[in-house]
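Researcher: Quick test of sequence recovery. Tokens follow.
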């Protein structure tokens, strides 16, 4: 357990989308937390906390959770004196967003898999890199190189299916998905900001500005955990 038990502690990997979402939610709520990045092959930390996988957020009262959407939404009730990020979203709009996201998750995961080695926890150690390569082949039945070679067609599918250009224009006008910072903005940014690292792929400039805008509102850097500034 963390030394400072008056604040929550986040056990996470930099390359984890759910870990990124937790960091952004905590930042958007103005909460201070103990940041505990874990090694890529560290399974013990999750097991010790009673979970099968990271990230795990341990609250000051000892209760713990992960970063699934329902758990992120529940943080509004746990920290009622902080900005509401989920309860401010109309129920129908949230449900529509969740369904839209579900239709893009598999394709998005394949796209970002080839750029996750930008994180130091993967690229800094040959054994970690070899482990990550094996995980990619297990999950996608393709090597990192094959996934990278497929990026152009896969991105076009994602852009068309998700209507990313139209989305970018709406977000440029509204600044945030619902007009004010919400959990939808955090999920969108965590899911898709790494698309900007795809070599030769240009995502809509409106989305690039939007990702940076959301990160700044959450007081986090989207490059945290990377060995060099991008």
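Model:
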């Amino acid at each position: 357990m963390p030394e400072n038990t008056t604040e929550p502690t986040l056990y996470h990997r930099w390359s984890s989308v759910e870990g990124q979402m937790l960091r952004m939610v905590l930042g958007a709520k103005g909460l201070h937390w103990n940041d505990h990045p874990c090694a890529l092959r560290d399974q013990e930390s999750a097991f010790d906390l009673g979970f099968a996988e990271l990230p795990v957020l341990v609250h000051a009262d000892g209760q713990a959770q992960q970063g699934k959407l329902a758990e992120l939404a529940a943080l509004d009730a746990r920290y009622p004196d902080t900005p509401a990020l989920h309860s401010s979203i109309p129920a129908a709009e949230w449900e529509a967003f969740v369904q839209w996201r579900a239709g893009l998750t598999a394709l998005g995961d394949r796209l970002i898999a080839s750029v996750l080695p930008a994180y130091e926890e993967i690229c800094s150690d040959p054994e970690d890199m070899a482990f990550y390569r094996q995980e990619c082949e297990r999950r996608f039945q393709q090597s990192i190189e094959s996934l990278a070679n497929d990026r152009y067609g896969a991105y076009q599918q994602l852009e068309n299916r998700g209507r990313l250009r139209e989305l970018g224009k709406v977000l440029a006008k509204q600044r945030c998905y619902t007009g004010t910072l919400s959990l939808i903005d955090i999920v969108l940014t965590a899911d898709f900001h790494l698309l900007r690292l795809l070599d030769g792929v240009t995502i809509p400039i409106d989305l690039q500005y939007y990702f940076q805008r959301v990160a700044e509102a959450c007081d986090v850097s989207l490059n945290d955990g990377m060995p060099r500034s991008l």
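The mean pLDDT is 95.
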